[in-house]
Structure formats: C-alpha cells, structure tokens
Amino acid sequence: MSVADVAARLAAVRERIARAAERAGRDPRQVTLVGASKGQPAGLVVAAVRAGLGALGESYVQEALPKLAQVAGELATAGLALPRRHFIGRLQRNKVRQAVPVFDVFETLDRASLGEELERRAAAAGRSLDVLIQVSLCGEPQKGGVEPAGLGELLERSRAWRHLRVVGLMTVPALGPDAETARPVFAKLRDLAESLRGAPGADGLRELSMGMSDDFEVAVEEGATWVRVGTALFGPRARAT
Questions:
Q1: Domains, in order of start, for the chain
Q2: What does the DSSP 8-state code read for residue 190?
Q3: Over the stretch 144-174, which tens digit does the pLDDT of each residue have?
C-alpha cells in the first residue's frame, strides 16, 4: 500500500467519524482516532503519521518496541516525532517495565495489581501516564476487564496512584453479525460513566474508548471519544501476531 493509499484511507475514516458525530449532534473534534497498528509494518505506520495520524495503538509489547523504534527513526529523518502511543492490548505485569517508557496511555487497566505495577514503574521512570479502566460488559473473560460491580472499588484504589491519571473507561464488545449488535454495549459504557459522576476516583473520567473498524461509527453515535481503528485504516494485518 502506498503513502497515498494510506492518506486516502485516513481521510475516509475521518469522514466517517465526522458523519457519525454529526448524526448524533456531536462535534467531530470530540473524537480522537487511534490507529491500531498491531501487525502492521513500520512503513505503513510512518505513512499514516506523515499523513496526519495523531495517535498509535499497539497491543503487544514485544512487537511494539522494535517497530516503534524504527518508526521513530524514520520519522526523525523527516523532522517528525512519534505521536501519542496507546497500549490497547491485555497487559501482563511482567511487561510493564518495558512498556512504561514507551507508551503514553494504557487503555486496559482492569485490576488493582496492574495499576500498582504501572504506578511503581511510572514513578521510577519519572513519568505521568493516562490510563483507562477496561470494563467487561460482554461476558467474555478472555477479553479482560473489570466487572461493573468492581469498578467503584478499583476507582477508589486509583486515588493512591500519584503517577497515573484515570481519564476514562474502555470496553471491547463481543463479536456480532453487524455493527448494531454492539450498540447496547457502547450505550451501557456511556451510562456507566455518567453514573459514576461524583464517585471517589471518578473526577477525571472524560474519555470513552470504544469502537473498532467494524463498529466505530455506532460507537461515535453512542458517545465514544476515542476509537481504535486498524483494518479500515491500514488494510488487513500483514502477518499474524
């Protein structure tokens, strides 16, 4: 895929986001596109950033570290810097030390032990990180996420983490036959965030990360502020990961 192809795909995804936001009476500027670049070659990622992509999402630490280093080097030759990096996959505690210096946002905080490890490593690195709590709303444990009933306790625990800012909630719906299948899940996450207003640890909740290539327009209609789009932006993944 050429640089021009990537730029055209980026423009098309942004137009779809804008139309979905307008249908919901929202300002499209409220929605941030995170390019989910898992399994994509560095050259395509560089092309997307050069075309204006402002956030990258990676799911595997061991894949992301060398690739992002290569992307950074290629961008530097053009006088460009790496954009904001989101970690959007399930994160194991033993990968936190490697991930903290590289990523700016962790979207998959789902347990206190992971938050404590992120806090410890962020403090050691002298970094402040944005995190989202991943909420399980589809009954699929393999996707990760805290159950809604445990969300208040996790937010309460987060008040002790001085190097982490809990800025929102994230969810991954179950696979369904069409995008509309995910709508109730997205609406539920939005309602859950609204119900937490005023709760201990919930003061900073302003982001909703939900929606991927197959359903991001529905997610935007239901209030998403971050959408994680891979295939629609980069095409099919170049290799299995």
A1: 3-233 (3.20.20.10)
A2: H
A3: 899 999 999 999 999 999 999 999 999 999 9
